[in-house]
Specification:
By secondary structure, this protein is α+β, with helices and mostly antiparallel strands. Helices cover 35% and strands 14% of the residues. Among the domains are: 37-66, no CATH class; 70-123, Recoverin, domain 1, CATH 1.10.238.10. The longest helix is centred in the N-terminal third of the chain and has 18 residues, at 3-20. The relative contact order is 0.08. The mean pLDDT is 76.
Amino acid sequence: MTRSSAIAIATALLLPAVAAAQVQTQPLPPAGTAPERASAQTAQTGIVTFGDPGEQQVIVRSYEPDGAAGDAYRISFEALDTDGDGVISRSEAAAHPRLSHEFRGVDADGDGRLTREELRGWIR
């Protein structure tokens, strides 16, 4: 049996199972309470529209959280860099609870050390 005929047979056998497994969607029931809205001071960070023109569309907007500029994201690089090597290690970051919790996400290159540049992307 050739490779192409084996693929054709496998496709013929699997196609009905795949078709039966397709997801069906239904409208969601009405929500009991309105979703939280971002305050007027937050910046919109994205918008996506689903649906064809002329039909009912769903618009999803994302906003910067209210607390993004709060004290949880304020740091003194010099104070955290206790050994003065120009980077913040995981053990040095432990002195700042929010940074310690989000360390892996901030460490863009995964080297276990945070540079000023990596922190600029986190604090932004």
